[in-house]
Amino acid sequence: MKERAGIQSVEVGFALLDVLAKAEGPLMLRDLAAAAHMSAAKAHRYLVSFQRLALVQQDSASTRYDLGPSALQLGLAALSRLDPVKLARERMVPLMAEIGHTVALAVWGNQGPTIVHWQESPHAMTILRLGDVMPLLTSATGRCFAAHMPRDLTGPMLKTEIANAQKMKRHDVPTTQAEANAMLNEVRQHGIARVVDVLLPGVVGFCAPVFDSDGHLVLGMVSLGPASNFDADWKGAPAQALRQAAQSLSAELGHHAA
């Protein structure tokens, strides 16, 4: 495809904005120019114009440059137009091809983590259905949401499920709040939730969290398959692919990982 003509000076000047966006704080002119691979004199000319447009501002005391209010307005406007589920759905087919197993998306609904989309592997048995609400303790999806959602939302559900696990004398799920807390800490440490032979016999499930620009969990990216040929290792190929896809989408939504 023939590359369309553009305005080179705009592209060159954007390098300065890109450096400021990725910097940890305001920058001196010499450092900003060096990072953008241009002379200080050339960078200064661009910065004068950017200041007039309020895309860049300069602190009068330190003389350092930073992004201005117009840049913030543009960023907020772009973020407000992002649809996390739509963006995630676009990733489902290539993600399923990479993992080789069914993938799905879940969001927090009125009754808990709810399946809103799935991409079923051609060789898989139907396990999930649209609208399924996943339990917090026995599903990877539920564990992911329980680990990252506010406790005032998940607390009552966790309490009920822990009580049910106690009555059923289950040994494969937490039966105390302390055990549940330890499990959720493990989810946060690995950056992904996992179940093996818990919700359904012979089934492995993973769920990776996707965050927005405010650090709020907006959806979970799920993959599951038979334990006979699904790598259940925390660092296995399915977990790595799912975690990477979730982190990439989070970054697109404006999330900056700690």
Structure notes:
- This protein is an alpha+beta fold.
- 47% of the residues lie in helices and 17% in strands.
- It contains nine helices and seven strands.
- It has helices at 8-22, 29-35, 40-52, 69-80, 84-99, 140-148, 151-168, 177-190, 237-252; strands at 56-58, 65-67, 102-109, 112-119, 193-196, 203-211, 217-226.
- It has a five-stranded antiparallel sheet with strand order 4-3-7-6-5, with helices on both faces. Strands 1-2 form a two-stranded antiparallel sheet.
- A hairpin with a 6-residue loop joins strand 5 and strand 6.
- Helix 2 crosses helix 3 (40-52), helix 5 (84-99) packs antiparallel against helix 9 (237-252) and helix 6 packs across helix 8 (177-190).
- The two termini are 39 Å apart.
Strand content: 15-25%
Strands ordered across the widest β-sheet: 4-3-7-6-5
Query: Rg, please?
Result: 23 Å
On the 0 to 100 scale, the average pLDDT is 89
Pairing-aware structural class of the strands and helices?
Answer: alpha+beta
Largest sheet: 5 strands, antiparallel
What is the 3D shape? elongated
> Any low-confidence stretches, pLDDT <50, length ≥5?
none
- Counted by DSSP, the helix tally is 9
Order of helices and strands: HHHEEHHEEHHHEEEH
- Overall number of strands: 7
The percent range for helix content is 40-55%
Report the end-to-end length measured between terminal Cα atoms. 39 Å
